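Ops channel
N.P.: pipeline sanity check, posting one input/output pair.
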């Protein structure tokens, strides 16, 4: 058997980031931080994820910055790939919930 040399990764090493406190009220920033933390925790680069999902690197950067202009389909593709998911909870089921300041035009 011929031993093939181990291929070394090109570019920078991915540095893990801390997962945000996901028990707090949801925000685009919190989701963006969770996506970044999950990706970096898996040692995946922006290029790794964007190529695997056939989305552009700038789109992935927007997702990781919490940009609400990104298509929900792309956001969900990234979340699924990284093993993240949403739970849908009705405000009617949460005691003392308020919906002030909600903007239905944005994905969060």
């Amino acid at each position: 058997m011929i031993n093939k040399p181990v291929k070394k990764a090109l570019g920078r090493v991915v540095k893990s980031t801390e997962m945000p406190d996901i028990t707090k009220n949801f925000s685009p920033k919190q989701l963006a931080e969770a996506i970044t933390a999950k990706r970096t925790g898996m040692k995946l680069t922006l290029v790794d994820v964007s190529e695997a999902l056939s989305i552009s690197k700038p789109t992935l950067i927007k997702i990781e910055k919490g940009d609400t202009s990104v298509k929900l389909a792309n956001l969900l593709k990234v979340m699924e790939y990284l093993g993240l998911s949403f739970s849908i909870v009705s405000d009617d089921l949460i005691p003392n919930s308020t919906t002030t300041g909600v903007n239905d035009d944005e994905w969060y």
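N.P.: looks fine end to end. The chain has a mean pLDDT of 82.
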